[in-house]
Structure formats: C-alpha cells, structure tokens
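re: that chain from earlier
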Amino acid sequence: MFLKTFLAAIFTVVFALAAQAVEPKNTLIMQLKDGPVTIELLPDVAPNHVERIRSLANEGFYDGLKFHRVIDGFMAQTGDPRGNGSGGSELPDLNAEFSNIPYTRGTVGMARTPDPNSANSQFFIMFDRAENLDDNYTVFGRVTDGMDAVDKIKRGSRSANGSVTDPDTIISMRTQDKL
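^ sequence. v structure.
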C-alpha cells in the first residue's frame, strides 16, 4: 500500500511540473550587460499584451532601448524608443487587461499614462512589492531567472522620478523559439 501511495505522489508531482512547462513562444530571453533574464509570459492573464510584447521583441524593437526610469526598491522601466518615457511603438495602444496578480518582486507589467487603456510598448520589472499597482496596471509576465542581472540595472535619482543618466540598455530580447 505504501508503494502505491508513494508512486501516486510521484506521478502527481511529475504531472504538475509538466503542466508548468512554459512554451518557448511564451518565454522571453532579455540579454542585459550582467546576463540573461528569463521572463515567463502569461497569455492566459493578458493575451493582447503578451502578443504585443512577443511581436515587438521578435522584430528587434527592444534591442538597444534604455532603462530610462529606475527607482531603487520599486522598479526598472524600459520600452520607449525615445528613451525618456514619452514614446512607444507605432502600433495602437492596448486596452487594459487587469488581473488579481499582485505586483511583487519579479513581476513584469505594462507602463501607461493615467489612461488605463494607453499601454503600448513600455514595461517595467518590479524590484519589490508595490500594492498600489495591484489591479491598476496590466501584469503580463514574471521573471523566472536572472533577477540578479535586473538588480544590477543602473538606478536613477528619486528626486528626478527615477530618471537615469547614462542608462543601461537591453542588448537584445526575443522569445525562446526565435533565438
């Protein structure tokens, strides 16, 4: 009886791990100066945002873009081709896809203006918990490996709302199936 119960438990764990396997098209690899960052995309949570990030990344849109706003203990923001937080892609803005996923360390969300339906190409990675973002910004992914490289992104000045002088950049970013 013990062996049967033990084997059932093993199979349960194996099947649970297999179910958690992320498809290569839903895995972003972002290369930073201090190493790669793996981001699991969440198409079941924010399908339109995931598709936008996936297509822009695979077009090379993010390659060389600056982390223009980085606030210690909060987040690192990128995705603006102008490099100052005022730009986006030429694609139309996206409608919000809010969820109940909390903004914790490693959460990846879409930046936007005060209009909830204004996300375009800019995104941010959380350094720490920020409850004020919950249910107000679209979560589309989470860092699964490489937070040590994210932690080394050059910080900006708090007095300048995180604006960074001589900022770090994304070297390249593609989905795993396009590497």
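The chain has one domain: 24-178.
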